[in-house]
Structures are given as structure tokens and as C-alpha cells.
Design a protein that fits this description.
This protein is an alpha+beta fold. The protein has 3 domains: about 150 residues, no CATH class; about 120 residues, no CATH class; about 130 residues, Serine Threonine Protein Phosphatase 5, Tetratricopeptide repeat (Alpha Horseshoe), CATH 1.25.40.10. The chain contains 14 helices and 8 strands.
Amino acid sequence: MKARLTAIRSFAALALLSACFVAFALAATTPTSTASKPATPKPATSTKAAAPAAKPSTGATTHKPATTGAAKKPAAKPGRPPIEQAFAARQLEDAGAYGRAADELKVLRKMVKLDGDLELELALDEARSGRADSALARLSTHMMEQAANDSMPLKRRAEYPFQRETYWVDGKFDGWNWYILRARAELEAKRRNWKEAAAWARRATDAWVLNGKDWHILAVCAAQAGQEDVARQATAQAILLDPTLPEARYLAGLWAWRDGKRAEAIEHFRRAVYLDSSYAAPALAMMKVQLPGARPDSLPTELLTGIHQVALLTSAERPKPEEFEQMDTPAALDSAPDTAVADTITPGIKPVRLYVNLLVDENGIPVLNHIAWYPPSQLDFRKILRILNSVPGMRFKPATRLSRPSRVWVGLDYDLKP
């Protein structure tokens, strides 16, 4: 197995040139009207190094974070092509200005045919800017219900690429229905409609079986809906598939506490605190469970907490995995435990390339992982588990932006034997 650290979406540089070269940037980053929509791009391959560093993108304009609140609705510029309008909205998303991006998408909506991918993106921006009711109503239309039930081929089970604006202008739904299922689960949970939230979360796990975060969301929603058997099974799946998720460990500790297994509960709480030292709930529970006669804490209502809310589609916590931010200096791998699986690739055998994206915080600690969907039959998942179990021990030199440490997504890629 060869592990390499790669820069995420370095090709975005052309898209972020100065305003006087917008026309050139659009020509470089968007397809013509006759071109098909791009497949999800893979991280760029880097050369091997003992302690590889993410390569910085060049020529990109540094974004200043913008407010996500509602702004005055902009009018489309006379003669502005739809793809330029879409590009402008995507730039605002990449800057975290979700409210303004939603306003730009509403302008785009009047310029093109009704488009399922555009409706989905608009709903996500509305949710991220505090308009959850509007987002839920938009995802509940007949068209979006049909998109959610789309029986799509496996090749459509792909996440939106960085240049996702090309999906918003052709008047049809070309994306992956998992987005709709997960977003509906999150929005129903926000309204405390737990039974509906659990039903949508269940469908999300069916669409992405190996996503541990989906299983944890199902566990929380099912627990609040009174579906304890489903919740306990989903908790076990979440821990198995994403051993780096502290919220799943905390929930497992609560189940053990309710069963009178205090030692087991303490171990789960201890593990949760190890994964996130700022996570107060398991730290307090670890002390409380040792008190004679102490009753178990209430089951959580938050799907994810703190920085881990980046993984929620409808949360404004960022950066999202598909977004690009130019850094002054990239994050660099400083140390990693030598515990991940190492495969010897037989000559003549094409390896399976596994991409593991990590959100590295301002302290250089990986706090979240993201693995793209792949067919379960393609690779032994036990290899991925060994890689994920090594993630908490990794340390990075933080990325910097405007001379300050900044959180950023970095990528590790592994060549594994099929």
C-alpha cells in the first residue's frame, strides 16, 4: 500500500482568478452546452515522500468568510448566461455565504428549466442560512419526491464534484438521491419529527451502506422515536463503520449504562473523550456513571456536535468536503502511527485506489473523515477500518490562512489489493 497526501481540488485555481478575467475563468472551468456533466473528480496524485504535504493551489484568490444571513436579492445581469450565474452562486458557497448563494440560485432558477439538482442545492443553502422550513418545503415537492425515489444505476452513486454548478442548468436531476434522503432526515430531526426523521435516515443508510455517520444519525432519530432495537443496532453499525466518531461512542456508552454495564459504559465514554477532548457530554457521563445510584443521562437529540457538524448537509458549519478555500500554506502530515494495513501489490494486478479525506483542525488534529462511496464488493472493508483506526493518532502541521491556523480538508490516498 502506498499512502500519499494530496491537495484537495487544486484544479480550482483557474476558477478563482481576479474579476477582470472572469470570462477566461468560466471558459476554463465549465463545459460547453453540448458537453456532458463531469464525473466526480479524484484528488490529484502526488509523488511519494516520507512526510508528504498537501500541495497548495496557485493563482487562486483568497476568500474572506462572508455572512450567511439573508441579503438583498440580486438581479441577473443583462445577457448573463445561466452558467455564469451558477458559477457566481458556487463561489459564494465556497466562501460560506450561504444566504447570498441562495439568493443567486433563486435568480438562476428563473433563467433555466426546473432542475432537481438546482432545487436540492437551493434547499441546502436555505437550510444552512437559517431557512429550514423553506428548505424542507422545497425538498417535499412532487419533483423532489420523484428524485428521492429515483432507481438510479450505480454510476450515479457519486457525490457532486467541486465544479457542481454544471449540474444546475440542464433542467433534470442528474445527482444522487442520497443527498435528498439525508437532508430530509436532518431537517425532520431539526423539527423533532423523530419518526419521519428515522424513516428518512433508514433510507439514507440503504443508499450508502458503509457510511457510519448515516448509521449514527439513524440511531439518534430512532432512539428519540422510541425504536430502541433499531437505535441500538444502528449504534453498533456506526461504531463499526466509523471508529473516529465520538458521538457514536457516547451513545453506545449510554446504552451500556442503561443495561447496567458500567465498566463498558466507562470505556465508551473514555474513547469518546479521546476522540474529542472538547466533547463535554461523555466527560461528564464518565464521572457520573461511577457514582452509586446515578441514573443514565438522557439520550441525545443532537445528530452531531461541534466541528463534526461539518458532516451534516444542512449545517452551516464548514468547510464542506466539496468546497475549496485557498490557504497560504497547506496542512502537512507531521506524524502517523504505523498501524494501517499495508498491501503488497502483485505485479500485473491493478490496485484499488482508496481516497480518505480528513478535516484537519487549527491544531493539526484530524477531526473528521470522509470516504467516497464505492461498491461494497470492491474492497474488504476491514482494511478501511484499520486505516480509520489509525487516523486519531495522526498529527499535521496546520494549514494557515492570513497568517492564522485554519481548518482544511486534506487527502490521503492508498493503493490496496482488491
